[in-house]
Amino acid sequence: MNRKFALPAAAAAIALLVSGCASSETPAADSGASGTSATGDVRFDVSTVKAVPELAELVPPAVKEAGVLRVGASTDYAPAEFRAEDGQTPVGYDVELAGALAAVLGLKVEVTHAQFDSIIPAIGTKFDAGISSFTITDERTDVTNMIAYINVGSSYAVQTGNPKSFDPTNVCGSRIGVLTGSYQQEYLEKLNQNECKAKVIDVAAFDQQTEATTNLASGLVDAFLADSTVSGYAVTLTDGALEVVGDVIEAEPQGIIVAQDDAALTEALAKAMQHLMDDGTWNKILSAWGSADAALSTAEVNPK
Questions:
Q1: Model pTM greater than 0.90?
Q2: What are the φ and ψ backbone dihedral angles of 63, each rounded to 5 degrees?
Q3: pLDDT at 172
Q4: pLDDT tens sequence across 30-48
Q5: Tens of pLDDT along 96-140?
Q6: With b meaning 16 or more CB within 10 Å and e meaning fewer, what string describes 57-83?
């Protein structure tokens, strides 16, 4: 579903808070060489990350010649990837990670907004990598390489006070917002195939997480289901208009997407990720965004 509704004033304000004033049609501007933004919410200074010559040597010739790591991200998913106050510049812990990885490999970084479900088809052509909160699934590792870097669960958010009496332990029959192409959409659709056959969930899939958030604020969905880091951050940004309900469910590793046939770039990024884990940089990035508990310590490729 991709219908847009007229929003009341409170919901419109929430949309601006979460999206950084950007419309869903406006692409995020490319970030600079350091991978950090001159405008908006930057928590970690990526310019402090130094190149590691032996890892830079692993970068495949085409990427090395270009001098830029091109990263696709759906920049409406705070705090992982979203847009700064200028409505263009990508920020968030995934964006800072992209800059740090590029720096280790002796490259500049270019983080460009793309609709979430369009990123994987563009890997290897438009983008060298996708860093956008991709949960590692068999379906994705069947067609790409995925490098584990963070472990994130899912959680439901509702309007504060839960006026629709949404029960996170019995979601059948509810109307729930999700991001199109996300793990959460797959999760709810599997519930419809099993526990909720008699009383199916109305899965409202939106192209932007901000649409799910504003529809919840407007009362047009009963809840939204998103990464636990995203749900918690949405509560903070909406100044208490929303609240998280229930436990974190199905915590799973997320991965950096690389083309399945690009073994060289996969190795380079995996070893650069491991370097950032080992020297503490990854923990520092996540700590700055209040998500240190989600850090992984091993950059495994295509974990089962």
A1: no
A2: -70, -40
A3: 98
A4: 444 334 334 457 789 999 9
A5: 999 999 999 999 999 999 999 999 999 999 999 999 999 999 999
A6: ebbeeebbeeebbbbbbbbbbbbbbbb
| Residue 237's pLDDT band (cuts 50, 70, 90) | confident
Could you give the CA distance from residue 103 to residue 109 in angstroms, rounded to a whole number?
8
Other Cβ atoms closer than 10 A to 176: 23
> Which residue matches tokens 């409170």?
10
User: In the 3-class helix/strand/coil scheme, how is the chain assigned residue by residue?
Assistant: CCCCCCCCHHHHHHHHHHHCCCCCCCCCCCCCCCCCCCCCCCCCCHHHCCCCHHHHCCCCHHHHHHCEEEEEECCCECCCEEECCCCCCEECHHHHHHHHHHHHCCCEEEEEECCHHHHHHHECCCECEECCCCECCHHHHCCEEEEEEEEEEEEEEEECCCCCCCCCCCCCCCEEEEECCCHHHHHHHHHHHCCCCCCCCEEEEECCHHHHHHHHHCCCCCEEEEEHHHHHHHHHHCCCCEEEEEEEEEEEEEEEEEECCCHHHHHHHHHHHHHHHHCCHHHHHHHHCCCHHHECCCCCECCC
Residue in this structure with the two tokens 């899912």, named with its chain if needed? 154
Per-residue model confidence as pLDDT tens digits over 140-188: 999 999 999 999 999 999 999 999 999 999 999 999 999 999 999 999 9
- Of the candidates 11, 76, 25, the one whose C-alpha atom is nearest the C-alpha of residue 221 is 11
What is the average pLDDT across 217-232? 94
